[in-house]
Hints:
- By secondary structure, this protein is an all-beta fold.
- 0% of the residues lie in helices and 52% in strands.
- It contains no helices and eleven strands.
- The strands form two sheets. Strands 2, 4, 5, 6, 9, 10 and 11 form a seven-stranded mixed sheet that branches. The protein has a four-stranded antiparallel sheet with strand order 1-3-8-7, with no helix packed on it.
- The chain is globular, with a radius of gyration of 13 Å.
Amino acid sequence: QVQLVESGGGLVQAGGSLRLSCAASGxxxxxxxxxxxxxxxxxxxxxxxxxxxxxGSTYYADSVKGRFTISRxxxxxxxxxxxxxxxxxxxxxxxxxxxxxxxxxFGYDYWxxxxxxxxxx
Length: 121
């Protein structure tokens, strides 16, 4: 089992930045590929970014490429999502997720409880 706890959400004006953090416990963190997703009201969950076990490889959805950056610190069992140039359409609940197979946009085994991000216009 892997337990994931997100933090760092909040209210920000359009054009601003937020950094989300996800703390992991349980199974060896460095053995997990990690990802970030979001879900807005009335919409399906959307993949945002993924990072490999070592942190050497990343993958982004087109909707956030160039604005969001995923990173991880295996010594601290954390994965981060730096979000810049935020837009009102980025408003959603943001989730981190973990998987034991190769990083990517699907197939995640463990999920956090989510953190709310609200971007005002």
